[in-house]
Fold each of these.
Amino acid sequence: MQQGIQLILDNISKIVSLTKEEQDLFVSKLQYLEYKKKEFFLHEGQFSNELNFIIEGCVLVFYTDHTGFSHLIQFAIEDWWVGDIASSTHNIPTQLNIQAVEKTKVLRISKEDLEYLFEAIPKLERFFRILLQKRVANLQQRIISSLSKTATERFLEFRAQYGFLENRITQLQIASFLGVTPEFLSMIRRKLNSTNK
Amino acid sequence: MQQGIQLILDNISKIVSLTKEEQDLFVSKLQYLEYKKKEFFLHEGQFSNELNFIIEGCVLVFYTDHTGFSHLIQFAIEDWWVGDIASSTHNIPTQLNIQAVEKTKVLRISKEDLEYLFEAIPKLERFFRILLQKRVANLQQRIISSLSKTATERFLEFRAQYGFLENRITQLQIASFLGVTPEFLSMIRRKLNSTNK
DNA sequence: CGAAAATTTGACATGACTCAACTGGAGTGG
DNA sequence: CCACTCCAGTTGAGTCATGTCAAATTTTCG
């Protein structure tokens, strides 16, 4: 866990700088947790009241539609933040599932503690404001891609941006992220190999 | 303009409450602007350093791809905030265009002033943090729809959520928002009418 | 090693796009 | 107030991208 604390403080200090006291206060609110492979952080229908910082491992955030198909909204690996903002902002049960795909270690902070910390340390609120701005930019980019690009182009974009994930998650999950069937993704890969290899 | 000031203060007070002095300071940084129908707030390639609050009118935010097609990312009407977060967060030229579709009145605040205000009035930073959370929730929902729904379903969802816009913007723009061709949207509408009327 | 899951393949079906032609307002200028 | 143009919207035929289903193959992992 100790190295996790260092990781999270470094993560924050890339954007705002906290004093020693502020860091200690912040750290005092963190809870350390481990999840086994395939274990769930959050199931749809629950209320989400936490924010998680991944120290080690990898998690998927996905939505299951009425026909039972899963759609991958987001993934997160070490040094990333993950939570269901919609559920905790609006106080509604979540539509999302968050699941570990590997053994995963996280630091968790509750919504109440976070609100308390925002009062006590305004710089922390700034940190999350900036994090959210980046997330908005990222989601917007994804919408642009889904509106203007073909599946093959989206796959190449995925590789360029998240290539380091290609052997940590399955083709099925990549397909679900891109919004295509696994069969079709398989065909895309075959074509790319024969053309480009 | 006077009624615009009231509108923006009311908009903020739904989430945080400012003192009279804070309100005055905030208001002192606002710039009032009017745009004619079809006029641009922002052209792709420019740097975006402002945030706009619409007092009256309607604007579209769109992306133009390499083949010259436009894709509608977002629209905004009175009582909404609009700007290019990606460009101003990362200090990069924008990929987006923002254009008035009607005569539009806005209150604008520069990035510098906003940063100054965040220091002076932490509650204001909270306000924008919460606004961003809502935006993230909204964008995420749109991604869920684009991954899991058919064009017809997305059109019905658009109507349910943004029906009040249906006669302020064109079919072409709606098609571009949904990510389909105007021809195909026309067919969807015809089918819905014959089935459901 | 063997079972279950992931990936691939191929035949066929369909949602959505392209292109070209047509229709019907909404300006605009004379 | 008419004639003209222009652009949004519609239609239809043909095509392409992507999905469905079922089966074969490979990989993973207990």
Note: Strands of chain B lie at 31-35, 40-42, 50-56, 58-64, 70-77, 81-83, 96-100, 104-110.
Amino acid sequence: MAKQTPLELDSFLPYRISVLANTISTTLAGAYSQRFDLRIPEWRVLATLGGYPDSSAREVARRTAMDKVAVSRAVSSLMERGRVVSSIDTLDRRRTLLRLSPDGEALLARIVPLAHAYESRLLETLTRQERLQLETLLEKLMQQASLRSSEEVESCSKRS
Amino acid sequence: MAKQTPLELDSFLPYRISVLANTISTTLAGAYSQRFDLRIPEWRVLATLGGYPDSSAREVARRTAMDKVAVSRAVSSLMERGRVVSSIDTLDRRRTLLRLSPDGEALLARIVPLAHAYESRLLETLTRQERLQLETLLEKLMQQASLRSSEEVESCSKRS
DNA sequence: AAATTATAGTTTCATTTGAAACTAATTCAA
DNA sequence: TTGAATTAGTTTCAAATGAAACTATAATTT
């Protein structure tokens, strides 16, 4: 032990969550990325358009918490491969409405089971109760995480 | 609802954890990155060397789950700024032993409270019980996540 | 209705990242 | 012990990412 609590990285929550998330993303992406030639941002757009056809890029960005550049690139790539088709919104010609092509639908239909299987695997060692707890915890953490977290943190550092 | 369960991204666990982790990392990094001219990989190396002086780059990589290239770059940058010093291991001259300089120690001492404050903030809405549950859940999830997750997933996709 | 401001989306450029090749030291095997 | 295989760490190159500038359309102000 050192001066203060020396910050054991292994038990530091932000770090643990980051490692967990990374492991999950990488593992899951590994299951479909090369096989379907689909990177994570594309997968997210695909899944979103599956649920919300005729979204604009902006709407997809909002739903996925991706930034608009990432969405733009993912959409281009999906369109090149014929997985997404677009049409101009006649009411607002700045907007492009996006939807899956039949190919895109088919691809999504193949990946969804993979995704669900992986999710099940993650959850399989949890009891019913623990799954409910997880729900609660994710919600609470997400809420705290996205608060402008600066106040305490800043005041801590102002002096020194 | 569509064909099968259409994969609502908002309730898809891998996605939720990824968004949470991203939000946390970004927020936390925002609190020290520009102020101390320290990026996330550097911060991780710094924190690790604080706890485990005279680690080799390899050891740091293992502890932080970073890859060796990232460690190498972070170490270079920390050394340029005089925050880390190195010495060659006389028993194995391939290895470089790393430790914090006094400056590095001082920097770490300033950031640790910020990190702890942010962690506290994340946890502050959780009851004592929920914190224990979180502990259990993170462990279980991490264990499942890092299993070669392929079996089920692959078998699912082989056909179709 | 002309000029200003705002919004949707793309492109550009600079930075970050990762994989693979590389250098140097060590260990193992014949 | 020489030669092959390992291991530590760095460098190189190509791909991914993000911020800011840019284009085009729409909404607002005067």
Note: Residues 149-160 of chain B have pLDDT under 50 and may be disordered.
